[in-house]
Structure to design on (161 residues):
């Protein structure tokens, strides 16, 4: 079983990379971790409250969770597990340690997808991921999969057609 990491901005459009992974690895089961990258807080108070602060969980909208469930149901034999996680901090060593600890086999990057940051502390991890030397599968999403407006489940359903 392969464990794949996909960077996410918690938009329905970003789930199209998961669809690609399920189709690409259809002959084996995969675990997928949708990882969102956030910078460390810059105030002492925020740093002290970080272990108790769960405000970043509000970034995961109900439509995104529904989209994850839809994909799990569409590919029941291929996707064994799909989950979200956060990497709070910035640095190549931090990311490499995370990938090794989670036993990530490869990272899927959509070359033609521009992430929309849902928080002021969110950041685009593409350059950081490339600097780790970790195995990367570059994905070229079809134009209709990235041009669909992020309008809830309709965006994911239209992209599947």
């Amino acid at each position: 079983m392969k464990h794949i990491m996909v960077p996410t901005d918690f938009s329905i459009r970003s789930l199209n990379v998961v669809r690609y992974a399920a189709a690409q690895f259809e002959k084996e089961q995969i675990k997928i971790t949708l990882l969102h990258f956030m910078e460390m807080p810059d105030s002492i108070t925020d740093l002290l409250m970080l272990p108790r602060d769960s405000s970043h969980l509000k970034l995961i909208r109900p439509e995104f969770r529904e989209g994850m469930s839809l994909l799990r149901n569409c590919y029941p034999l291929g996707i064994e597990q799909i989950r979200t996680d956060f990497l709070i901090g910035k640095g190549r060593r931090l990311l490499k340690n995370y990938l090794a600890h989670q036993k990530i086999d490869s990272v899927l990057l959509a070359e033609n997808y521009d992430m929309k940051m849902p928080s002021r502390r969110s950041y685009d991890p593409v350059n950081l991921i490339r600097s780790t030397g970790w195995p990367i599968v570059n994905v070229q999403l079809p134009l209709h999969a990235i041009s669909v407006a992020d309008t809830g489940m309709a965006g994911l359903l239209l992209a599947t057609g």
